[in-house]
Amino acid sequence: MKGNNVKLGIAPIAWTNDDMPHLGDYNTFEACLSEVALAGYDGTEIGNKFPTDASVLNYHLDLRDLSISSMWFSSFLCSESYESNEKRFIKTLDFLKNVGAKRINVCELTHCLFDSTSSMFYENKPIANDSEWDLLCEGLNNLGALAKERGIRLCYHHHMATIVQTLPETLRLLNNTDDDKVYLCFDTGHFKFSDEDIIQALHACHHRIGHVHLKDLRHNQVINAKENGYSFRISVLNDCFTVPGDGIIDFGPLFKLLDKYAYEGWFIVEAEQDPAKANPLEYAKIAKEYIDSKLKF
User: Fold this and answer.
1) Which domains does the chain have, with CATH numbers?
2) For 149, which DSSP code?
3) What is the mean pLDDT of residues 176-192?
């Protein structure tokens, strides 16, 4: 992207799944970092196997000339005290600051269906009431202010099987939070899985995007998931997600629009897959080659 300060990374979830640790439990974080570097990426996000000692992680990053872009943070602002959320958040911010990251990806997990065996579609989709929305938006503003003080942007991650999934829900969150404290982690796969038009979503949210996840979907598997009422985990295990270049999304128009809006930050390839079926290095290279070809405009 001409003239923009953009880095390309890939999430460690391709090597070891945070929600289902048995997927890739044999992969070490050292192997993950080495293959991220070997595939030509600039960095990654924090995974569940990464060292919690910043100095140890920095050592391994420096060996491979890699950077950390961000880290997931599970908020429970609608169901737990703000103080308990803030305490965990500050600890995470301090760690991210020590590894040089500038983003934290927050997702509200009150009512989420990540661990559920129930369908995540249609009438089963989690929703929040008005009082919960007030707690969420107020809490995000407060957490975002703490992040801003440390030079880190809070980027809210809209996500399947949660209370902030669709474009209208995402816009409600953005419209009721401060634009200098709460940004958006724009995820192509989650908007597409939720039947949203990605380009329309980008037009609507471009002024708040602080981080981008590049996720793709497999058409037939997504159709099966919706027809059979899959849970989130079953959707992962049945290969709904994949990397750019191996699915149904044409990322060319998306990149051109992000370039037009002068996006600066990270692109993170992210696809929840079973590494025993989708070799992480192979798919990392597929995504890298595809993205490189689409960014030549």
Assistant:
1) 6-294 (3.20.20.150)
2) H
3) 98
- Helix, strand, coil share (%) of the chain residues, nearest 5: 45, 15, 40
* Residue 3 pLDDT > 60: no
Per-residue pLDDT, 296: 80
pLDDT value for 1: 62
Q: What is the mean pLDDT of residues 20-33?
A: 96
Number of H helices, E strands in the chain: 11, 11
- Gap between the Cα atoms of 180 and 173, Å rounded: 14
User: Torsions phi, psi of 134, nearest 5?
Assistant: -60, -45
Element (H, E) at 127: none
- In b/e form, how buried is each residue of 155-189, taking b as 16+ CB within 10 angstroms? bbbbbbbbbbbbbebbbbbbeebeeebbbbbbbbb
Q: Are 256 and 296 in contact (CB under 8 A)?
A: no
Q: CA distances (Å), 124 to each of 48, 183, 206, in order?
A: 29, 27, 29
Q: Using the predicted structure, report yes or no on whether residue 10 has a pLDDT greater than 90.
A: yes
Q: How does DSSP assign 188-221, residue by residue?
A: HHHHHHTT--HHHHHHHHGGGEEEEEE-EE-HHH
> What number of other Cβ atoms are within 10 A of residue 25's Cβ?
11
Give the DSSP per-residue string, 66-121: -EE---EEEE-TTTS-HHHHHHHHHHHHHHHHHTT--EEEEEE-TT--TT-SS--S
pTM of the model: 0.97
Tell me what the pLDDT averaged over the chain comes to: 97
